[in-house]
Design goal:
This protein has about 300 residues and is α/β, with parallel strands linked by helices. Helix content is about 35%, strand content about 25%.
């Protein structure tokens, strides 16, 4: 079993005037995982990241990062990409990374080689000799990733890494993150782009009003809707077949020769279709998108909260 890189146990954070940013959050992220942290503005994502980075402290509960409960002790093994990174624009990209390398204890040839490797990794090798003030926003974001990778961290925390970028720049950043994922880096990705999270992450968690209302493997969540789609022969009408076989109670929706039924009714529906000699072209579980999961989960939580009040 992979060791845990992040572990939160009953983690809570309250501010003044009764504001609860996090409420009894329990979360585990294993080594090598790519985890997407989702939630609307004010859900508690930034508070959780700040606690993980050791910038602020929890009100109660326990947090452990790379085996350290005093998370600042793990800083050399953690890379952080802020949503709005700030640079000294008079530096060239290489000079900036060289300076950070020196701060990290790298000197001379080892430092220069590390900077060259990082600039190559984020596709900025040629631009590395230019002043940062001439960089596009996408180039700045890639430089921020290079900065975060300077110490070859085990864990990389990224806050909205493609926010505000044009489509090409978004693609370039995602390619870099996908490569890091293949290298075995542990990624914690905070993003509002659900398509991006679905493509880059193997597990996700959804925060709402400080509560972790859902977490799990992306593959499991996308298959958990309990809907099966059956495609009949092209000349058939799904509506007529359902009516003739008295299966309306199992039907979720139909269109043309395609019908969608509840998963728990699939055995009964298939039996009647086969008995009636209805030709079936395909039979498949319906996959949700991560957007479907997010919207349905947050809506249900909002309804449950309203009822409880």
């Amino acid at each position: 079993m992979a060791s845990l890189v992040i572990e939160c146990v009953d983690l809570s954070k309250s501010y003044g005037r009764g504001v609860t940013a996090l409420n009894m959050v329990n979360l585990q992220i294993a080594e090598g995982a790519s985890f997407g942290l989702l939630g609307e503005n004010g859900a508690g994502k930034s508070t959780l990241v700040r606690i993980l980075m050791g910038f602020i402290f929890p009100t109660s509960g326990r947090v452990c990062v790379l085996g350290e409960e005093q998370v600042a002790h793990a800083h050399t093994l953690v890379g952080y990409v802020h949503e709005r990174p700030i640079f000294e624009t008079r530096f060239t990209g290489r000079a900036y990374l060289t300076y950070l390398g020196q701060l990290s204890g790298l000197w001379d040839k080892a430092n220069q080689q590390r900077c060259t490797d990082l600039l190559t990794q984020v596709n900025l090798l040629e631009a590395g000799e230019r002043p940062i003030g001439t960089y596009s926003k996408g180039m700045l974001q890639r430089l921020a990733i290079a900065q975060a990778l300077m110490t070859d961290p085990t864990l990389l925390i990224l806050d909205e890494p493609t926010s505000g970028l044009d489509p090409r720049s978004q693609w370039e950043v995602r390619q870099i993150l996908a490569a890091l994922r293949k290298q075995g880096k542990t990624l914690l990705l905070c993003s509002h782009d659900l398509t991006e999270v679905e493509a880059l992450c193997d597990s996700v968690g959804i925060l709402r009003h400080g509560n972790l209302i859902l977490s799990g493997a992306v593959s499991d969540l996308l298959l958990s809707q309990g809907i099966v789609e059956i495609t009949l022969a092209e000349h058939l009408s799904a509506r007529e077949v359902i009516t003739r076989l008295n299966l309306a109670d199992a039907l979720i929706e139909e269109q043309g020769n395609i019908l969608r039924i509840t998963e728990n009714a699939q055995e009964r529906v298939l039996e009647r279709l086969v008995t009636a000699h209805i030709p079936i072209i395909s039979f498949n579980p319906v996959n949700r998108t991560l957007e479907d999961v997010y919207v349905q989960t947050t809506q249900q939580n909002a309804q449950d909260t309203a009822v409880a009040l």
